[in-house]
User: What shape does this take?
Amino acid sequence: MTRHARPVLLATLACLALSACTDAGPRQQSGERPDRIKQAEDTRRGETWAILINGGGNARQNYQSHLLHVRELLGLLRERGVPDERLFVFSSDGHDPAPDLAVRDRQPEADFWLIEGLPIGNSLRTEIRLENTELDDVWTAPASKAALNQWVHEHGPRLEAGDTLLIYVTDHGKKNEANLDNNTIVLWGESLSVKEFGMMLDRLPAGIRIVSLMSQCFSGSFANLMYDLRGEPSGDVCGYYSSAADRPAYGCYPENRGKDNVGHSFRFFEGINLYGNLSEAHDRVLLSDRTPDVPNRTSDGYIKDLLRREAAVRRVTFDSLVDSLLSQAWQDELHYDDEFSRIDHLGHAFGSFGPRSLEELDERARRIPALANELASYAKRWKGALLDLKRENFARFLQTFPFWRDYIQQAFVADLDNDGKRRLSAWLLEDLVEFTEKDQATSDRLHALKTIAAESQTASYRMEVRRAVVLRMRALLTRIAGLVYLDRVAGADQRQAFEALVACEDLTIGRATRPSRRARALPPPFPPLIDEMELLANVLPGWLGIEYAHLQSHERRALDLEPGAVRITRVVPGSPAEKGGLRQGDIVLGPPGSHFVERNRIREWVLTSIVDEVRLLDVLRDSNLLTVRVRIGAAPV
Assistant: This one.
């Protein structure tokens, strides 16, 4: 269902194209407007039903984390009194016994990092294996359009006015580049768009509340299901979404990461377990979800739409309208105290601040995107340097123990089963660790690079989360502005529409609980942003500003050079290399008395140099040996 009115004939024909419409008829007839005041006050004493959808796409993309989500939600709903006869699961290929689930076990060897990323590491890492999805004692069908429409035809008439249908989706999701209002859910071998989903829901009996909980990429697009044929919120369709219509989600991984309880779904289930109420669970997710997701809900989307239209009418920018309304809220802060407190709590949870306007938010957060890009760039460079050294260390290991060459041949490893690979990996790492530890200098370098690579990667990820938190704050500030607009400017219809959406979202499953303070405790807050910036200095790599190529073997032999010697192919204008006098064509040997022996050793040497430190390099230029002084610079993004 889109926000724009559709002719009834088009909706009816599309409905017939998907599957035969039931006698119950469409949920919202053309020209019919719901009594939103009644809906907002509706106590919803009917039954709760639930549809759980895990499409998966195909066997190799149907990750185990999705199945863990489905199992956990099933257990939660059962514990809260929803009987099995009202629980329905649409999962991958349904009851087909063919393998349809991708599972990867954790890497069991603690020292596997020494070969991770190397060809032998890629061969010995735990494999993705395909298993059959098993969901016992629950109604199950394939995640397909045909199965969903068959459910609407057979089970839809069992729902009655006042009932609630919870639709949970854990999946990949696809973005419709041509129309973000019509993104899709990935089913088993096919996709279901917002429009198609809306037409399916239209065939359910009238008077049913439909609440979606969607943990998938680009899921915010499905908030458009709130609008009826007139382009107004119907008041009985709402939802919660892990990401905006233009953003991917971060809760699903191609290995068995579900044990870590990472992502929007697990955090939302945690909130439901604590409070029983989806609205309160959403508030907790905003504070507890440590991924770069931007959780949002239907009423947020409605407020944004209202303010966009109002900004267009006033011929002002959206941000200026929001800030003018926020200034009014600030003058009556007690009235909006709960909303401002949410922003303050969010700022504390992520080592940030509690802005009172979009202008302040943008001003104080303006460095975050640049910092995120810098940290991502640095993490990539440190990871590359670590991989170089692991490669060199393993090459020396094979020179010392040549018999291992036979056992790491691709053909030999490919013939091993998983148990055989684990035994081979254990034996190999036992010898490799012993060999590495005997070379104290190399061991120290490896562990130092491993530490700084991990620190920079962690900081880079946290900065991506901070970028998402800025968007979460924008949404909260916009919501406060929208409340001011509804209180002081909007008409009665708009206020009633918003109240109806809030009532729709306010779904309590089972009996509400009063969790203890300990149960309500959130994860430890992020370090303050200023500390993150200090960490940036700690992981800041040095920079020289050259591009280089390795010498051919015959060139090195002719000049009697070490394998680490490189020829400069480009000097970046204005770089420390140019300022130090390095030129294209120079052959860099290394520091005086300690020429580079390992291939790519120059990269580690530059990265680990202190910024502003003056260092010496021996260079061959036209067969002449020169020593140049270079002042190491700070690595650009």
